[in-house]
D-aminoacyl-tRNA deacylase
Amino acid sequence: MRALVQRISEAAVRVDGAVVGQSGPGLLVLICAMRGDSEAQAEKLADKISKLRIFQDDAGKMNLSVRDIQGSALVVSQFTLAAETKGNRPGFSTAAAPDIGNALYAHFTDALRQTGVPCETGIFGADMKVSLINDGPITIWLDTDQ
């Protein structure tokens, strides 16, 4: 699985003009299931993200996790993280099939909740509009295959 994790002051996702999920302060997690990914990988990634120390402690050092600050997460599916960009038009053949991707997206979100991080989500496959205030900015790329 691939994830792009952003430290946020706030974020929201809208579908047809209505807010369907929001968070802050905490994390915006853009997530993509890749062909061949498993529930075990989703759980491992959720655990890693819940422990990722990207929030400042009292000394101003990035030493705290989203759980430490009692933050929350907005998790948004984004198959375009699977983009292959050898030419000018990206290909997405390495992304999981939609039914598998949706199941792994839901499993990841449930696994993140089980670590103690409150989560809201977008809607898988919908035309979503995501807004955020990136805090830092801090943006981390994670891939379970690397």
In short: DSSP finds two helices and eight strands in the chain. The chain has one domain: 2-143.
